[in-house]
């Protein structure tokens, strides 16, 4: 799978989405079609996120371990890989060292 390196013709919200005392930070990107994505950084630590809509998390750089709500096993994801999270669910993401960079796409329900 090839990840995009840039997006053209988009609107970027300059106000950051800041979570966990700045350990997770993202910016929202809106396409002309209305599609929304966030581009973000996750610093080392363990964090739980809930979802409203289904999401696809694409790892751009770094690595993480993810446990989807309702599952026991964590899976490791590295640059170029992705995982999907059902809507009205959640996941725990662990970054052992460094920074994990991601693109989050909101999928149709």
Task: Describe the fold and architecture.
The protein has 109 residues and is mainly β. It has a single domain, classed as Jelly Rolls (Sandwich), CATH 2.60.120. Helices cover 0% and strands 61% of the residues. It contains no helices and nine strands. Strands 1, 2, 3, 4, 5, 6, 7, 8 and 9 form a nine-stranded antiparallel sheet that branches. The mean pLDDT is 96.
In short:
The protein is an all-beta fold and 109 residues long. The protein has a single domain, classed as Jelly Rolls (Sandwich), CATH 2.60.120.10. The model has no long low-confidence stretch (mean pLDDT 96).
Radius of gyration: 13 Å
Q: Major sheet: size, sense and barrel closure?
A: 9 strands, antiparallel
The CATH topology turns out to be: Jelly Rolls
Helix/strand/pairing category: mainly beta
Give the proportion of residues in helices. Answer: under 10%
Number of domains: 1
Query: Per DSSP, what share of the residues sits in E-state strands of 2 or more residues?
Result: over 45%
CATH superfamily: Jelly Rolls
Keywords for this structure?
Jelly Rolls; 109 residues; mainly beta; nine-stranded antiparallel β-sheet
Describe the SSE topology.
Elements: E1 10-12, E2 17-19, E3 24-31, E4 36-50, E5 55-61, E6 63-68, E7 75-78, E8 82-85, E9 90-106
Antiparallel strand pairs: 1-3, 2-3, 3-4, 4-9, 5-8, 5-9, 6-7, 6-9
């Amino acid at each position: 799978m090839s990840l995009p390196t840039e997006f053209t013709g988009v609107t970027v919200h300059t106000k950051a989405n800041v979570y966990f005392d700045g350990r997770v930070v993202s910016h929202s990107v809106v396409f002309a079609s209305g599609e929304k994505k966030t581009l973000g950084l996750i610093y080392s630590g363990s964090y739980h996120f809930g979802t409203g809509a289904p999401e696809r998390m694409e790892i751009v750089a770094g690595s993480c371990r993810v446990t989807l709500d309702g599952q026991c096993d964590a899976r490791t994801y590295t640059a170029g890989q992705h995982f999907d999270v059902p809507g009205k669910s959640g996941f725990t993401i662990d970054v052992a060292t460094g920074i994990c960079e991601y693109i989050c796409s909101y999928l149709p329900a």
